[in-house]
Write a structure and sequence with these properties.
This protein is of the alpha/beta class. The protein is built from 16 helices and 15 strands. The chain has helices at 37-55, 82-90, 94-111, 127-139, 168-172, 218-230, 244-259, 290-295, 300-308, 320-338, 349-364, 369-381, 386-400, 404-421, 426-440, 444-456, and strands spanning 2-5, 10-13, 22-26, 60-66, 119-122, 143-146, 149-152, 191-195, 215-216, 234-240, 264-270, 273-275, 316-318, 459-464, 467-472. Helix 1 (37-55) links the parallel strand 3 and strand 4. Helix 11 packs parallel to helix 13. It is elongated and about 90 Å long. The two termini are 53 Å apart. It binds adenosine monophosphate and zinc ion. The site of adenosine monophosphate (AMP) has 16 residues, from helix 1 and strand 10.
């Protein structure tokens, strides 16, 4: 498999360090609010990556953190703690907020057919690991104490900016306008490993440490949790593209300074889902969640389909119009699958391998899910029997997780029920036929008028690939 590696800025053949296992780490959610569907785009694509690695025969151990402490609201280390903000907003304790939104996150994931990682670790569980790393960094001269906090000294590194081709001077301005500068730092990009003094003294969760009572910075948690469960090396680290700087850059800085060798080989970054107005936000505009989509009548799996139609390294624009197009395409696909009839024919192994080869080629080319979706249509058009087509679709859906066969079975069942309920009434039959003729002639106004008339008479019509059926309500 070839994957784009943000570290080398090119597509590389994926070769794990150990032949028997792929060590995969994913930055998990900050559980101060619901995940928006942009966050979930990242988790969907990471889920596809994990499942594809398993599909090709790898044994994968995937670890994810849950950020329940230390994530500040700005890139500078002076912003307000996000968890604390959530707790204040809802008049609850930080731990209550963390539990509520962790459960909500996994419930959203389940609706999107995202598998739960093998290990899910809340950041507050691993404070001893962070303290050990920070102590070692201080001993090795990579960290210093200033104003009560422990900072990582980025000037001690040969190369700090690993992901960006940007001019260092440009990035050194890193601290955004309007954000107060932390005067304890020796260098602009130094970052907090351990806080004992923050502007926010009402921080709820604090632990004893060699530097006083305090709490860990955000970046250290991913290094600590990854090393606790996956050891001193990592094959694959994932996250949204906004995590590349400063979060992942800082993870690499502290992990490699601590270990004294290279830490992670491949960095997989998912580009953003944006709204037509720009960046997706939890506070501005409509807060786009899975629950909101459900309230509006969308099946969450259609959102997954919408995401898979685009490559993960392209920004994707969300609009209801785009989602509606995905609904139409998904329903058509399901209707075609529902029309397949496996009968008594055996699967043709040769034809199946040929179909699989197209899917594998798409996925091997930097996880090209958009081409993989096209390969579903190739299956439907293939010159082979229906049993083989269904076997291929089932096989691909292990990775794509679009519920293809289940949804098709549900459609088939509904059709059979409609047929069983089909009554004989020549007048209604004639009206249904007239509506179909109007639709064929693109006279949609007339088709809608007839539909309304039938509705007024208590007749429900169901369009199926085998024609239009009707039943009385
Ligand atoms: P957070 O809960 O803010 O820590 O973010 C969870 C994950 O969502 C991280 O991997 C982010 O990089 C990712 N993310 C944030 N915004 C977006 C977006 N608009 N599109 C895709 N991924 C995003
Ligand atoms: Zn992380």
């Amino acid at each position: 498999m070839y994957l784009y590696n943000s570290l080398s800025h090119k597509k590389e053949k994926f070769v794990p360090n150990h032949p028997d296992i792929v060590k995969m780490y994913t930055c998990g959610p900050t559980v101060y609010h619901f995940a928006h569907i942009g966050n979930l785009r990242s988790y969907i694509m990471e889920d596809v990556l994990e499942k594809y690695l398993r599909y090709t025969g790898y044994n994968v151990k995937r670890v994810m953190n849950i950020t329940d402490v230390g994530h500040l609201a700005s890139d500078a280390d002076t912003g307000e703690d996000k968890m604390l903000k959530g707790a204040k907003r809802e008049h609850k304790s930080v731990m209550e907020i963390a539990k509520y939104y962790t459960d909500a996150f996994f419930s959203d994931c389940a609706k999107l057919n995202i598998k739960r990682p093998d290990v899910v670790e809340p950041a507050t569980n691993c404070v001893a690991e962070y303290i050990h790393i920070v102590e070692t960094l201080v001993d090795k001269g990579f960290a210093y104490l200033s104003g009560g906090n422990v900072y990582f000294d980025t000037s001690k590194l040969e190369q700090y900016y690993v992901f960006n081709d940007h001019d260092e001077e440009d990035l050194a301005v890193g601290v955004r306008e309007g954000v107060e500068e932390d005067t304890n730092k020796r260098n602009k990009n130094d970052f907090v490993l351990w806080f004992t003094k923050s502007k926010f003294e009402d921080q709820a969760l604090k632990w004893d440490s060699p530097w006083g009572v305090g709490y860990p910075g955000w970046h250290i948690e991913c290094s600590g949790i990854s090393m606790k469960h996956l050891g001193d090396d990592l094959d694959l680290h994932c996250g949204g593209i906004d995590n590349a700087f400063p979060h992942h850059t800082n993870e690499i800085a502290q992990s490699e300074a601590f270990l004294g060798h290279k830490w992670c080989n491949y960095w997989f970054h998912v580009h953003h889902l944006n709204t037509e107005g720009g960046k997706m936000s939890k506070s501005k505009g409509e807060f786009l969640t899975v629950s909101l989509l459900e309230q509006k009548g969308y099946d969450p799996v259609v959102y997954r389909f919408f995401c898979l139609q685009s490559h993960y390294r392209r920004n994707l624009v969300f609009s209801y119009e785009n989602l509606d197009n995905a609904v139409v395409a998904y329903n058509k696909l399901i209707a075609k699958i529902a029309a397949l009839n496996p009968g008594q024919e055996p699967v043709d192994p040769e034809a199946l391998e040929e179909l699989k080869a197209r899917f594998v080629k798409a996925m091997d080319g930097d996880l090209n899910t958009s081409l993989a979706i096209t390969s579903l249509y190739d299956v439907l058009k293939a010159k082979t029997n229906d049993a083989t087509k269904l076997a291929a679709l089932d096989d691909f859906d292990y990775v794509l997780s679009l519920g293809l066969l289940e949804h098709a079975a549900a459609v088939r069942k509904a059709q059979q029920e409609a047929e069983a309920a089909q009554e004989k009434d020549p007048e209604i039959d004639a009206l249904v036929q007239a509506r179909s003729d109007a639709k064929k002639a693109k006279n949609f106004a007339e088709a809608d008028r007839i539909r309304d008339e039938l509705k007024a008479r208590g007749i429900r019509i169901i369009d199926t690939p085998q024609g239009t059926k009707w039943s009385r309500d």
